[in-house]
Design goal:
The protein is α/β, with parallel strands linked by helices. It is built from 10 helices and 7 strands. The chain has a 7-stranded mixed sheet with strand order 3-2-1-4-6-5-7. Helix 5 packs antiparallel against helix 7. The longest helix is centred in the middle third of the chain and has 17 residues.
Amino acid sequence: MEAIFGVWLPSIGYYNAKNFVGTPYVPGEYANNLIDLANANPERQIYLWIDFAHLRPKEMAFMVELNKKTPRNLIFKNLRAIEKYNNEELLHKPETEIWKKVNYSRLIAAEHLLKNPRIEAAFYGDLDIKAKNYSSPGIQKRMKTNGCIFCWTRFGHSAPLFENSFFGFDKKHINILTEFFIPETETAMKSHANRREWGAFRNCIRSLFYKSGFDPEKKAQKFGIRRQTIWGRGNKECKVSFQKNCPIKGMSPPAPGR
């Protein structure tokens, strides 16, 4: 079985006291994207990883109620169930820059899923991803050839650059993730430089493909999916908002901290 997952952690830009009052934990547009993703991939498990310890009782009750209305293959998961997440002190400090937390959490969540005997491949996607069928040849062919897949964009540069908003690993290549991407990202996360862990992720990809004799920035199309083909920015991206009748669902999350 293949799994597709996202990660949501609170940050000041999305999630401040003034506009959080009375609103749910995840922006509604992103929740709808997950629902569309679950409906487009009924044979796959879709996970949303959240730190339930951050949820107030009001938000927990809200999500439990919404669980009753969403696709059966969309499941809320507690980041606290991941040992590396629980044990990394930096992830639980309010002053730690949000992207350090997210960039590391998405990798250890992938590792956690791939250690599940039933899961053969795990794909990560930022929550602004639009529904896409992961059975498409563009995705499956690259995964079969490389054992991993990434997305690329130009960011205004002439050469395509890989980035960490979409990636996938299969179980046979989990060592690439556990011995390469996770340690490098963890080391960079613990540095004082902002966003250095994102550069570490990109350097891992470059090193991975240079070993095959390719310059990944020149051969990006061979190894990855172009960001623009799977992404679309939400028009409410910078607001904590939720459509009144948004039917997000999943399995009931456990009590905070479990």
